[in-house]
Amino acid sequence: MKILLLGDEESKFLWDYFDKDNFKDIDFIISCGDLKASYLSFVVTMLNKPLYYVPGNHDKGYLAKPPEGCINIHNKLIQHNDIRIYGFGGSNWYSGGPFQYKDRQVNRTIRKNWVKFFKSGGIDIFVSHAPGFGVGDGEDLCHIGFKTFNKVLNKYKPKYHIHGHQHLNYGRIDRKMNYNETTVINAFNYYILEY
To answer: In what residue span(s) does the Calcineurin-like phosphoesterase domain sit (predicted)?
Structure first.
């Protein structure tokens, strides 16, 4: 199964030079936020595959006009075929925007889902905008990851944690890394995951 991952920067390869043959084997799409709603609507229309997304810290426009044809999975556990996917958007609080949270808020919100996670048998893919703390995050207030995400990875051991927020062109940032039993992937621009 192939999953198209998107995050933080619209890909010219996808948008300006789109060729459906390059993505014919894609089963579904995951967006990790900070992308134009029109871009997500374009991708889902051209590929005609489900697109699941979480909002990024710069996606205030989604409140008035969300991406058409796409499914918001912020704080939702969904199932695609036999894959359990949980999403959480936004970033660490730094200026009070609509998709900014303090770690204690994130902890309180996610803990309310722990029974649901347990009853469903866990999480296979954890999708977020921000990374976990110390797992591909930055050092400034905006880009520090959430410690609560590490708790999710420790407790439920999803196969993948897909995130955005940290642009690969910021400096020495790895696209893929391991955190215990979880493969962590930065979805910046686009990436094709073979699940």
So the answer is: 14-167
